[in-house]
Amino acid sequence: MAKLFFRYAAMNSGKSTQLLQIANNYESMGKAVLLYTAAIDDRFGVGKITSRLNIQRDALTFDPELDFLQRDYADIACLLLDEAQFLTPDQVCQLHQLAHTRNVPVICFGLRIDFRGHPFPGSAWLLSRAEDVEEIKTICECGKKATMHIRIDADGRRVQDGPQVEIGGETRYRAVCGRCFHVGEPDSPALAAAAGDATLPASAH
Ligand SMILES: [Zn+2]
């Protein structure tokens, strides 16, 4: 039987690239897939999944109102969702039910936590419901595994507060490890101070 998959990562980890690769694998075997992305993601135009390798495909969009059970999946070999952190808990339950009652594998790709380190409700539910959970690994600038990400403003400064959802515009994100998330950038005075550089004043930040 099919099951619910969750592939989670920090920002800039190549999630969309992996998703498009899986779609391609199915299609090369003559099987149809359905692609979804969040209606909220307007970085590349509505209903597009774009990898950082500049491969782009059209996708259906989901918003919180969509009921995934209201669709016919008769000829669909796999359902692939990008930006799955924006699913509602109800929608995660729908996708779980879909996989198990209609035998359609559902593979969700998304962020586990936001830039403040808080969980997205959709991802918390996916981590609870998915039978197959896997972390997509990426690396912090310091060389450790990145498990988190920080938000950067147009001037390159870290943003500590703000809405959980802010896609596009001048906002950028950087994947970081837990230590850099808490202590600072790899080359920041705060991190150097934490590492024992006594020449820096305690207030350096
Ligand atoms: Zn780091």
Approximately how much helix is present in the residues? 10-25%
Q: Report the CATH topology name.
A: Rossmann fold
Q: Describe the main β-sheet briefly.
A: 6 strands, parallel
Shape by Cα distribution: globular
List keywords for this structure.
6-stranded parallel beta sheet, globular, disordered C terminus, 13 strands, 205 residues, Rossmann fold, alpha/beta, binds zinc ion, 5 helices, 3-stranded antiparallel beta sheet
Describe this entry's structure for a reader.
With 205 residues, the chain is α/β, with parallel strands linked by helices. It has one domain: Rossmann fold (3-Layer(aba) Sandwich), CATH 3.40.50. Helix content is 24%, strand content 26%. It has 5 helices and 13 strands. The chain has helices at residues 15-28, 89-102, 121-129, 178-183, 189-194; strands at 4-9, 32-38, 48-50, 56-58, 60-62, 76-81, 106-111, 132-135, 138-139, 145-146, 148-152, 158-159, 172-176. Strands 5-2-6-7-1-8 form a 6-stranded parallel β-sheet, with helices on both faces. Strands 12-11-13 form a 3-stranded antiparallel β-sheet. Strands 3-4 form a two-stranded antiparallel sheet. Helix 2 (89-102) runs parallel beside helix 3. The longest helix is centred in the N-terminal third of the chain and has 14 residues, at 15-28. It is globular and about 50 Å long. 33% of the residues are buried. Mean pLDDT is 85; it is low at 194-205. Zinc ion is lined by residues 140, 142, 144, 176-177, 179-180, 186. Residues 140, 142, 144, 176-177, 179-180, 186 line the site of zinc ion.
